[in-house]
Amino acid sequence: MSDVEVTYSTMRFLKSPSEPQNRVRPEGAQPPLDTQDKECSVPWRLIAVATGILCLLLLVAIALLVTHSKLFAKWFCCGAKCYYFTVKEHHWKACNQMCQDSGLSLLRIDDMDELTLIKSQAHPHSYWTGFSYDPRQNKWKWTDNGTSDLNLTAISLQSLRGKCLFLSSTRIDIIDCYGNFHCICEKRMGDGL
After folding, report:
1. Which class for 117: exposed (0-12), middle (13-18), buried (19 or more C-beta within 10 A)?
2. Number of neighbouring beta carbons within 10 Å of residue 98
């Protein structure tokens, strides 16, 4: 036979929980921890509830932003200009004043390319532009006194006191300045934006 050492041990099972446990432990072994009457040092339930509430609030905020995104004005930049499309409707003078109060100017359309670009962004509303009839000078002009290569010959620009130019995604036309439309303000990049 070979020299193999065999070790036997005896297992003893408790018959009831009240029976004392007299076990012999090897040196260095730790007794099991009794966790029935102790509370965890980290408040897990509190952390779980707080995290759940935070997630719920974030979901509600995201849902509100998505469903009410039409309530916010929009900025759009292209080339050397940035455009600010308002949500609220105003008459022409109020639009002009709002733009000026914000350090902007009411939209001046420089050419047909810009008109096409703005009309593509205008859907579904109509917007005031910065082009109106100035009765003091008896002529049509842009609010910033700038020039434009926009061809407005398709529009009858006779002496129309109290008239202003508006645009939509489908047309550009002259109308009474006291009507209510949305505003498009602009800022040129070289003007300190």
Report:
1. middle
2. 17
Tokens, residue 176:
């009474």
For residue 84, is it within any domain? yes
pLDDT in tens, 44-66: 888 888 888 988 888 877 766 65
Residue 23 has pLDDT above 70, yes or no: no
Q: Which residues are CB-contacts of 188 (< 8 A; sequence separation ≥ 6)?
A: 80, 81
Cα→Cα distances 134→51, 76, 142, Å: 61, 29, 9
CA pair distance 133, 174, nearest whole angstrom: 10
Provide the 8-state DSSP code for 189. G
In a domain, 138, yes or no: yes
pLDDT tops 90 at residue 186: yes
Domain that holds residue 88: 75-150+160-191
